Amino acid sequence: MEILLEEFYKQDLHTPQYIERRYFLDEKSYQVNGISQSGKTALIKHILLGYKKSSYLYIDCDDLRIDVMALNETLTRFCNQNDITAVALDNYRAEIALPKVKQLIIASVAHHDYSELKTIRLYPLDFESFLAFEARYDESALNHFFQLGGFPAMHRIPSEDRIRHIQRSLKSALTEIGFDIMLLATNLLTQKISAYMLYERLKTTRKISKDMLYKNFETIVVQGYLHQLEKFNHPRAVKKLYLCDTSIKNALSTQKHFGRLFENMVYLEMLKKEFTLFYDEEIDFYIPEQDRVVLCMPFGNQEALFKKIEKIEGFIITNGITKVEVVTMSNEASLRHPFVPVEMIPFSVWALTEGEDEPQEDEEF
């Protein structure tokens, strides 16, 4: 095992065209969690490259040459012998013992219960972060965001290879049943869907037990490939389903439904600010701690909006809503309403200002 560790120790790391993100790692020990392709590896290598080369060791735990038992017996001793102060275990798995070093960084999809490690949750890019990857920011940036989604690697992959890249990444990261669930979910995003409903659909095309479906569904939700949104004051009601990134929709489905895709984009922007969100009837998103409602109307006009507000007046009054934001593609307006101020805001403006009034330390928890 020492021969392999020596090889890892001598290798040169590369992060071609790395773009800074909002996540900051100081000299403490961390675990970085996030779905495949969210940028964990690039972030870790970027941090290590800021250190003296002889002081760190980077190990990809997916390397088939690794003998876990031998690694556990050797790693701490190897670090001590070579004065290694920082160790990064990428694609970490729980059977690997944590070495005793000054700084340890582990990266994985799953969260591990290590109280000595601070946790960073890494999501695909939000719109503001996406703009840093763009050569220029103009009116085409939003359309580009719709096409590419939030996976950082999409900027380096030729356009003709992007869909196959996402398909291969998901197939590699998920179980066969998990991938089939994602295939179903791409046509059901933003809908009220339970695990049982997915089971009823999936059992018509393959042999599967309810327990197996439930187990795989729970796993991909916990990992962050799918997200669920609870109904306000109804925790047992069917939850709404959202994809972890909108690019998966086009990669796994030919169905087109721009309104649902747009709502998924708005949801992800707020998710990454770590707001506590709910839905209700006729309410896309409700943020109780801000007394705020967010509606998605990509091509809505003022007439359609007035009709929408009429349907939710009861909710506005009952819950003391102080602001209604309507996210659109390009329409912008401020409307007078007897109960609450209503603003129509283009997504490109809303996404860049969302959360400014409520500072969030969303990198760590």
Describe the structure.
With 365 residues, the chain is α/β, with parallel strands linked by helices. It has three domains: 2-121, 3-Layer(aba) Sandwich (Rossmann fold), CATH 3.40.50; 125-270, Arc Repressor Mutant, subunit A (Orthogonal Bundle), CATH 1.10.10; 275-352, no CATH class. It is 37% helix and 16% strand. The protein contains 14 helices and 13 strands. The strands form three sheets. The protein has a six-stranded mixed β-sheet with strand order 8-9-10-11-13-12. Strands 2-3-4-1-5 form a five-stranded parallel β-sheet. Helix 8 packs across helix 9. The chain is globular, with a radius of gyration of 23 Å. It starts with a helix and ends in a 12-residue tail after the last helix. The relative contact order is 0.10.
Average pLDDT reading: 92
Q: How would you describe the shape?
A: globular
Distance between the termini: 35 Å
How are helices and strands ordered from N to C? HEHEHEEEHHHHHHEEHHEEEHHEEEH
Q: How many helical elements?
A: 14
Q: What do we call the CATH topology of the largest domain?
A: Arc Repressor Mutant, subunit A
